[in-house]
Design brief:
Elements: H1 2-6, H2 10-23, E1 28-34, H3 35-43, E2 54-61, H4 63-66, H5 69-79, E3 84-88, H6 102-107, E4 111-114, H7 118-127, E5 132-139, H8 144-156, E6 162-168, H9 171-180, E7 188-192, H10 193-199, H11 202-211, E8 215-218, H12 222-238, E9 243-245, H13 257-266, E10 267-274, E11 278-287, H14 296-299, H15 315-319, H16 351-358, H17 365-372
Parallel strand pairs: 1-2, 1-7, 3-4, 3-5, 5-6, 7-8, 8-9
Antiparallel strand pairs: 10-11
Helix pairs in contact: 2-12, 3-16, 7-8, 8-13, 9-11
Length: 373
């Protein structure tokens, strides 16, 4: 707790806030990419510490939120099979598919088990050799090494009744897609510190150089975020575009070489569809040919899926920084944690869930910001 208190010190927060106010002379739009950062921003009222000229918008850094509808439907179909034990992290249970969710399947008798590690699913497979065990491998680069390790160990130990339904996505291509959008308004990014802890910063340097946009690798505590904003605003005010690392206590330039090697062993880069956004080239991981036997999509005969996000959810616009959660007509009404219309209201990292929990009223800063422009 003492370590956490160090990064939540109110006096230090006020000092950073005053410095941001001092150097800000014009409007800036900054996107925090990670859902964990979004929750800290909303929970601790960080936006209220910023000058009216600075707007924070929320990015696609919630892996549960961006898992496409057809992948959820695949999971639901597999989980409903009689001989299957379907293992998943808890926040996937309530994500809506086209007709139902995994929790509904569980209530109907499907053997769906919440696990806290992919290796837990592997243990279940070893303990139930007469049944197929499927792990729902969802996440960014942060969780990819552990998921890769589970598949690797399944092959090494010849656990042939284990497979993974892979829905991994990668952050840098999503950031690039946002910058390339004709409707883009993001001028600087706070990059996800935990992703960079694993992968390092090489891909972010390419984005900075190609698009002339500042990127600051940032942590998740209030002081981390305020310092990241300060570093980003300084660049914008000075007309610079560089890659900087605020999260030095965790992130090294080269990342975690052992973790990256495990990812390369098991996964290859592939295109992925993002819920509410569409397909982004080179934005995901898929299993390498040597591990294809452990791919649940190949193991089970599944129909073709061609579903799109329903029009009642504006999650795609929220994930791209175009809208705030409270700008949705259904927010807090038809859409709430008990009856979510979309994944951003379900996930522990979803922007809609953060606003519902900590801040349900409309913000005034957006109106002031537009008037200032």
């Amino acid at each position: 707790m003492k370590l956490l208190d160090k990064y939540r010190d109110p006096e230090a927060a006020w000092r950073l806030s005053r410095e941001i106010h001092r150097i800000t002379t014009r409007c800036h739009v900054i996107m925090e990419v990670c859902g964990g950062q979004t929750h800290s921003i909303v929970k601790y009222g960080i936006e209220e510490l910023l000058p009216k000229e600075i707007m924070l918008v929320h990015g696609p850094g919630c892996p549960v939120c961006v898992t496409p509808l057809e992948m959820i439907d695949r999971a639901i179909d597999i989980a409903g099979l009689k001989n299957v034990i379907f293992c998943t992290f808890g926040d996937m249970l309530r994500v809506p598919g086209s007709q139902k969710d995994l929790l509904f399947v569980k209530a109907q008798g499907g053997d769906i088990r919440i696990v806290y590690s992919p290796l837990d699913a592997l243990k279940i497979a070893k303990a139930n050799p007469d049944r197929q065990v499927v792990f729902f491998a969802v996440g960014f680069e942060t969780t990819a090494p552990a998921n890769a390790m589970a598949v690797y160990q399944a092959k090494e130990n010849k656990v042939d009744n284990f497979s993974a339904l892979v829905a991994h996505v990668r952050i840098p291509p999503a950031m690039e897609a946002i910058v390339c959008s004709p409707n883009n308004r993001v001028q600087g990014f706070l990059a996800a510190g935990h992703v960079c802890t694993v992968m390092g910063d090489e891909e972010y340097e390419e984005i900075v150089g190609k698009y002339n946009v500042p990127i600051v690798i940032t942590g998740f505590e209030p002081l981390d975020i305020l310092q990241g904003i300060l570093m980003c605003v300084k660049q914008l005010e000075e007309g610079r575009a560089e890659l900087e690392n605020q999260y030095t206590r965790s992130v090294r330039k080269q990342g975690n070489e052992a973790a990256k090697e495990m990812i390369r062993e098991v996964f290859h880069v592939t295109s992925r569809k993002w819920r509410g956004i569409g397909e982004i080239p080179k934005s995901g991981f898929g299993l390498n040919p040597a591990y294809e036997a452990y791919d649940a999509e190949h193991r089970f005969e599944l129909p073709e899926y061609a579903n799109e996000q329903g029009s009642d959810c504006i999650g795609g616009l929220v994930l791209q920084g175009f809208k705030k959660p409270y700008e949705c007509y259904a927010f807090g009404k038809e859409c709430n944690p008990e009856h979510p219309l979309g994944a951003p209201m379900v996930s522990s990292e979803g922007a809609c869930a953060a606003y519902y929990r900590y801040r349900r009223e409309e913000g005034g800063k957006e109106k002031i910001f537009q008037q200032t422009i």
